[in-house]
Design goal:
The chain is α/β, with parallel strands linked by helices and 749 residues long. The strands form 7 sheets. A 7-stranded mixed β-sheet has the order 8-7-9-10-20-19-17, with helices on both faces. Strands 2-1-5-6 form a 4-stranded mixed β-sheet, sandwiched between helices. It has a 3-stranded antiparallel β-sheet with strand order 13-12-18, with no helix packed on it. The longest helix has 43 residues, at 137-179. The chain is flat, with a radius of gyration of 37 Å.
Length: 749
């Protein structure tokens, strides 16, 4: 007989059952939660980037760009991972992660990576070529039609050459007793050209039938090479025949009307043949390079990153994104691939999606041009590095290339040799593209000999031309990006000519007193005109419209001058003036009135402090010793209706009262952090980007780019924040300990 359970045993059994049931419920609940999280994760992906540099987070500018993207864009990476010396596979995976971020931000972005070492690459390559050809369908149709007409034109040119050679020979023989001269060599050349025309026609036919990866892509450039010179020579030969025959038809010593009529008929026929050949040539040479063909040829020879859109295709230099295996093995950071890749890919997408991209015109008063017809630094650059305008062209060469990558055309107005403002009709025939006039400051003093009055008077003439140009632009309501320099004119009672219109909107520049700073060094006191800054004056409501992307970024200026803003005058003029950057008040900083005697010494200093025999010292009566000093500002003023402006039109101005800050040595200076080369003064380049976007009305693009995220950058603490932290450390911790102790006493009774 079973022994009955005791009360304690029964209670233990119930407890075990309850615990078992609770455990089962908890396991079931945990499994359900895991399943639920898995389902949610499949539908909604949320990622958290906890890296110091935000390596896995797209920049604000890229995010904004992708949110506004309305056309399909595919990024294609063509790489051969099986080839020695190609990209490191880890960097390819890094770019794959980056492109995944793009696709998550916009449904209009897709990507593919074609490893040409794999057998499947052929089908993918064929698809990509077909995609580019589909977007360029109208252009391809135009090329095909032109090549077909070229074939017909070459056929007629061949026939004309043979027919007119025979007629010329007959006319020559009939007129030989009257005019003399032999033209056998000329006729041989014509018949030889007829054979060449037949050969050129065959080359053009082959170019018309050209295919790449199964996609018809006419090789128009090969047709141009084969036929252009032939058509040029044929047209010239026909013109010569026409002129020769015309002379015979009008020769007074020939009394044969039949011969004269025959010669006149030959002249007419040869003239028509010349016109026909010239027309065929004109149609052919007007063809622009067929973009899909150029890209596919490049891909057949090298690796590249393509950004393909309905508006065109942009190819990115492969090694600009992907470090080679050898570079990675030598310590190059794979993380930097993201920043370089995002900057270049986002720039390409922005370029393809931008309608009516801006035009930037550098306004300067140097004695020569900064750029040649191709937009590169002028030829004087390579011949004479000491030439001021050559130096200026070199100093903005990388900036100009950076702008062109964004489809921003760069040109110049050399006011010393062209007093009339350029119309820009070639770049802006419909006048739909915004134009930003970049005033680079006063003519350079480099190379001037103060003892020679001629060079000084020459510079004065150029300065007057510069002032007149700026006055024209201001009066016309053009958008201005102004970089001004210290001027010696205020010392003799004159105003600084480049800024003498700005007081109308409440802005005055103390151009006769640039800022100087005393710097302690182990060798004693030194002085500098360079000032680094890390944040705009304000980034909140009412701040400058270009301030936000600049917050926390380090920049540098040289020879900065105080800007004074009178908001009452600005309000009366209907203008909105906002300070952007300022130099903080300090006993070691002042605006120096006698700066000219120190100018040469500071110009020889490489981005740092120097010691001098005669120490600069602040003077209360002569210098400005009371800061802070504003050194950059933005302004917007309404345009008067009588100026021809539309209602609501405004003029925008970005003013930086410092010299040289926009030049390549400042923009592209680098330093090494944790073994990585990063931009030393990223705020300078970001200021140019934000300023140009604002001036050209592209306010939606005013955001931080990817390049400035290459290393962790922490904003400076404000004086109030520093005081709060200091008091929290001094008094906060003891007070917290007392409160915790009092709480424990109360809790324990």
């Amino acid at each position: 007989m079973a022994k009955p359970k005791t009360k304690s045993e029964s209670t233990a059994g119930i407890r075990r059952t309850r615990y078992g049931a609770m455990t089962a419920i908890l396991i079931t609940a945990a499994a359900a939660i895991a399943l639920f999280i898995g389902v949610i994760g499949e539908r909604t992906a949320t990622r958290f980037d906890l890296t110091a540099t935000r390596s896995y987070t797209l920049s604000t500018r890229t995010t904004q760009l992708l949110e506004d993207l309305e056309m399909p864009v595919e990024v294609v990476v063509v790489v051969n991972l099986g080839r020695e010396g190609s990209a490191d596979p880890r960097s390819v995976e890094r770019v794959r992660d980056l492109l995944s971020e793009y696709t998550q931000q916009s449904p209009n972005v897709s990507y593919s990576i074609i490893d040409t070492a794999n057998a499947e690459a052929r089908d993918e390559f064929q698809r990509v070529v077909g995609l580019m050809a589909g977007y360029a369908e109208d252009e391809i149709r135009t090329h095909r039609r032109t090549l077909e007409r070229t074939i017909s034109g070459l056929d007629r040119t061949e026939q004309d050459l043979r027919r007119l050679a025979d007629r010329t020979e007959d006319t020559s023989q009939a007129a030989s007793e009257f005019v003399g001269g032999q033209i056998e060599a000329f006729l041989i050349n014509m018949r030889s050209m007829a054979d060449e025309a037949a050969e050129a026609r065959q080359v053009v036919q082959t170019a018309l039938e050209n295919q790449v990866a199964g996609t018809p892509l006419p090789a128009s450039d090969q047709a141009q090479i084969a036929a252009s010179q032939l058509l040029t020579n044929a047209s010239s030969a026909f013109s010569d025949i026409s002129a020769w025959a015309q002379q015979i038809s009008q020769a007074p010593q020939i009394d044969s009307n039949t011969l004269k009529a025959s010669a006149a008929s030959l002249a007419t026929a040869a003239g028509e043949a010349a016109s026909q050949s010239a027309a065929t040539l004109d149609r052919l040479i007007r063809l622009q390079p067929l973009e899909p063909l150029q890209v596919t040829r490049a891909l057949q020879q090298t690796e590249a990153v393509l950004v393909i859109a309905p508006t065109g295709t942009t190819a990115i230099k492969f090694d600009a994104i992907f470090p080679l295996r050898t570079s990675v093995e030598q310590g190059q950071s794979i993380a930097q691939v993201s920043f370089a890749g995002e900057e270049l890919i986002s720039t390409a997408i922005s370029t393809l999606s931008m309608q009516d991209p801006p035009i930037v015109v550098f306004v300067h008063a140097e004695p020569g041009r900064m750029f040649d017809d191709t937009g590169r630094p002028s030829a004087a650059t390579s011949r004479d590095q000491s030439s001021p305008h050559a130096r200026l062209g070199v100093s903005v060469n990388q900036l100009a290339q950076r702008l062109r990558m964004r489809r921003i055309d760069v040109t110049e107005w050399p006011v010393a040799i062209e007093t009339v403002r350029p119309t820009l009709l070639e770049l802006n025939p419909d006048r739909t593209r915004p134009v930003v006039w970049f005033v680079v400051g006063e003519p350079t003093r480099i190379g001037l000999d103060p003892s020679q009055g001629r060079s000084l008077s020459e510079r004065a003439e150029r300065l007057r031309a510069m002032a007149n140009a700026v006055d024209q632009l201001y009066e016309a309501g053009e958008d201005l990006f102004m970089a001004v320099e210290p001027s010696e004119l205020p010392a003799i009672g004159d105003s600084a000519p480049l800024t003498d219109r700005l007081p109308e909107i409440g802005i005055t520049v103390d151009a006769g007193r640039p800022l100087i700073r005393r710097v302690p060094t182990p060798q004693g006191e030194a002085w500098t005109t360079f000032f680094e800054f890390t944040s705009p004056v304000d980034t909140g409501d009412g701040a400058s419209p270009i301030a936000e992307p600049l917050a926390g970024l380090t920049g540098v200026v040289s020879w900065a001058m105080p800007i004074n803003i009178d908001q009452d005058i600005a309000t009366e003029a209907g203008a909105t003036v906002r300070p952007l950057y300022r130099v903080a008040d300090s006993d070691d900083v002042w605006a120096e009135a006698e700066w000219l005697r120190f100018r040469y010494a500071f110009e020889q200093a490489p981005l740092g402090a120097i010691t001098m025999r005669t120490n600069p010292t602040p003077s209360e009566s002569r210098d400005d010793t009371g800061g802070p000093w504003i050194i950059a500002a933005t302004a917007e003023r309404p345009l008067a209706p009588d100026s021809g402006a539309e209602p609501g039109d405004t003029q925008r101005i970005v003013l930086v009262s410092a010299s040289g800050w926009f030049q390549d040595p400042f923009l592209f200076a680098q330093l090494s952090v944790d073994g990585r080369a990063i931009t030393r003064f990223p705020a300078n380049a970001e200021l140019i980007d934000a300023g140009l976007f604002w001036l050209s009305g592209r306010d939606e693009l005013i955001a931080r780019s990817a390049r400035v995220s290459d290393v962790s950058r922490i904003r400076d603490l404000s004086p109030g924040q520093r005081a709060a932290i200091r008091w929290a450390m001094i008094a906060g911790l003891p007070v917290l300990v007392l409160l915790v102790g009092a709480g424990l006493r109360v809790w324990r009774g």
